[in-house]
Amino acid sequence: MADSGIHGVAVDMKDTNSTSKMKEETDPCFSLPFFQKLLAEVFGTYFLIFAGCGAVVVNKNNQDIVTLPGIAIVWGLAVLVLVYTVGHISGAHFNPAVTIAFAVTRRFPLKQVPAYISAQLLGSTLAAGTLRLVFTGIHDQFAGTQPAGSDGQAFVLEFITTFYLMFVICGVATDNRAIGELAGLAVGATIMLNVMFIWPITGASLNPARSLGPAIVSNNYKGIWIYLLAPTVGAILGAAVYNTIRFTDKPLREVVRSGSFLRNGRRSGSN
Q1: Nearest to 213 by CA among 39, 47, 21
Q2: Nearest-angstrom CA–CA distance, 268 and 60
Q3: What is the rounded distance in angstroms from the CA atom of residue 114 to the CA atom of residue 99?
Q4: What is the model's pLDDT at position 179?
Q5: What is the pTM of this model?
Q6: CB count in 10 Å sphere of residue 251
Q7: CATH placement of domain 30-264
Q8: Is the distance from CB of 223 to CB of 154 less than 8 angstroms?
């Protein structure tokens, strides 16, 4: 059975004022507000991985006492709580795939991507390291993700489920027509659902940081390329597809005249 997991997601809170948001996002990368965002990503990713991977380790050490539904609930609740805790500070990404997808669709500053991903990887690695220090000896279990079937099977499942996750994130967290207060609940529930059915096959990563942090700590990189590539591509396409839906209430001539869906996704958020 594959190692269990998931992870991180994110909520990029809706724009209520596109002009002010764009101005804020062009602030210097080393400003205090940006540093606070990075700290929120480090701590948020740390708590997410500590809780989710901790449930995995406890389950392995105690004859599956947590169970698959229990692990799925832990991941989903961890995301839900953290979205409402720091979503208004950093957007609660906790996931490099989500950060990259938002950047590609022009909903996040490209120059801030390296810092965000570094913060997420730091939080994940620290959490995995903490678990390894706590669970020593015979209780030291690999908390990362590895495919139980073929690499191709794992890649397809990770791609589809991350596509689905990002599609939901874009719908509930970036579109002003949705009920923003339910964003955390919707994203957490999506993660629970994904963990429930792909955990036995892939370990349910959906998040490069979730897989890479434990891999670094345990020096176990089997199949890691799957968990770096599939979620990233899936998230980018999920965000891009939602952006095409975001245009459906406009006349065709206006959509064509506006140019690229990806380039104009940010400006259509208020539609």
Answers
A1: 47
A2: 47
A3: 9
A4: 79
A5: 0.83
A6: 9
A7: 1.20.1080.10
A8: yes
